[in-house]
Amino acid sequence: GDDAVPKDEL
Amino acid sequence: MNIFRLCGDMSHLAAIIILLLKMWKTRSVAGISGKSQILFATVFTARYLDLFTSFISIYNTCMKVFFIGTVYFTIYLIYMKFKATYDSNHDSFRVEFLIVPVGGLAFLVNHEFAPLEIIWTFSIYLESVAILPQLFMISKTGEAETITSHYLFALGSYRALYLCNWIYRYYAEGFFDLIAVVAGVVQTILYCDFFYLYITKVMKGKKISLPA
């Protein structure tokens, strides 16, 4: 799948 | 950070504080689904495991710690301190019907087949449906206290504002997270019926009561 995205959201 | 994201977070924060104040002031957890709160505790615990692996900002860390802390305190109030007022007979939604499919989906549809990523995905999917036991409880009892309605309105608005945030971020930063967006849309749609009742009744000073 896609690359993991950084989780800056809550 | 943009205005939609900030308003979304503040709305989420307000929802939690409204719920705690309702329970604390009335010394009662009547009309509140313990099962939804357990699902939210699962959501926060699963999603914020990254507190141990990555630092994003003071704001991010404080909010995560606050959300986790308050949700477990809420569960303590429901199942221990104010247990006598908890309406377990009406809190009869079968949560396994949510947990199992959501867990399976997180395994199948994720950004990366890695433990933390799967757990994060699970939390996103679970959050989108975690309010169902609460909405089910209201449909069973046929009513919601006005303060509970304010709680639900703030909680529903939070993800709706995140949708605006994601639209903004897509155009401003090229940021796009399909999993979060689809789950956020589902989550917001689940509140639509409630939003309608809130606008047509609660905002006109009436409490929500459904025809039997």
Structural class of chain A: little secondary structure
Structure class of chain B: mainly alpha
User: Helical proportion of chain B?
Assistant: over 70%
Q: Using CB atoms under 8 Å apart, which protein chain pair has the greatest interface?
A: A-B, 10 and 26 residues
* Percent in strands of chain A: under 5%
Could you explain how this protein is built, in words?
The complex is a heterodimer of chains A (10) and B (212). With 10 residues, chain A is mostly loops. The termini of chain A are far apart. Chain A has no helix or strand. With 212 residues, chain B is mostly helical. Chain B has one domain. Chain B has helices at residues 3-26, 34-47, 58-81, 96-108, 115-129, 132-141, 146-173, 178-200; strands at 143-144, 208-209. Chain B has a two-stranded antiparallel sheet with strand order 1-2. In chain B, helix 7 (146-173) runs antiparallel to helix 8. The longest helix of chain B is centred in the last third of the chain and has 28 residues, at 146-173. Chain B is globular and about 45 Å long. Chain B starts with a helix and ends with a strand. The chains are: A little secondary structure (10), B mainly alpha (212). The A-B interface holds A 1-10 and B 5, 9, 12, 47, 50, 54, 56-57, 60, 63-64, 67, 109-114, 117, 120, 162, 165, 175, 177-178, 180.
Short recap of the structure:
The complex is a heterodimer of chains A (10) and B (212). With 10 residues, chain A is largely without helices or strands.
Question: What's the SSE blueprint?
Answer:
The complex is a heterodimer of chains A (10) and B (212).
Chain A (H helix, E strand, L loop, with lengths): L10
Chain B lengths: L2 H24 L7 H14 L10 H24 L14 H13 L6 H15 L2 H10 L1 E2 L1 H28 L4 H23 L7 E2 L3
Helix pairs in contact in B: 1-3, 1-7, 2-3, 2-5, 4-5, 5-8, 7-8
Features of the shown structure:
heterodimer; A: 10 residues; little secondary structure; 0% strand; elongated; B: 212 residues; mainly alpha; two-stranded antiparallel sheet; 2 strands; globular
